[in-house]
Amino acid sequence: MDQIIEFFSTLNPVLGALYATLFTWGVTALGASSVFLFKSMSRMALDGMLGFTGGVMVSASFWSLLYPAIEMSAGEGFVKVMPSAIGFGLGALFIFGMDKVLPHLHINFKDEDAEGIKTPWRRTTLLTLAITLHNIPEGLAVGVLFGGVAAGIPEASVAGAVVLAFGIGLQNFPEGIAVAMPLRRSGISRFKSFWYGQLSAIVEPIAAVIGALAVTFFTPILPYALAFAAGAMIFVVVEEVIPETQLDKYTDIATLGFIGGFIIMMMLDVALG
User: Model-level pTM?
Assistant: First the structure.
């Protein structure tokens, strides 16, 4: 890990954000490639992996985003926490707005439960867009941290950004499976299932570069931007990831997966970030 951090330390932070999220995109593609080996996966395993995804996202939201945002804010008491509170709320509202507009279908839900503007789009497209919605705040979070490094903010470190990207990569693997496997099970070809699975994460590098550039040019927004990404991620977990795991009899497995994901991300961030 030290060699990886050293490599990213030599890069322009915007380029670092791009490389880091190309990695997370690649891990999503790796997860989606499981359709070339298996046609289906047990519901228990899928719910457990989705729970793990939620745990990583919640843990990263606090340890990698909210806590540094509060620490770098000036003042005491309510004044110190206000930028994080505002950013967190705006991030949640941003994804809330996209959730109402962007047509998408949650994993494990029926076609008639599709959300957003009603369209004649096929199930494959709607499932892909649902995971794409997950990935926007993830890419943004990595980009904002790298942007903080470029701006010379002491609380933002290359190590922290790399660890966050690594943690997001960990939970992107089951996300890739979660998109591709249901498509394969419904009769879609292996290649198309893989294609839609990996396509869901293509937004991460785009969001990362936008986040890094925004913070680089407007340094004072960093605590707001970090909290914005955290709010967006928490909204995704509560509104999408957790409900997707509660539709069958494996809710305990999903909960244990969540706890495991939270612990692993916390250990990575505190020990290495």
Answer: 0.88
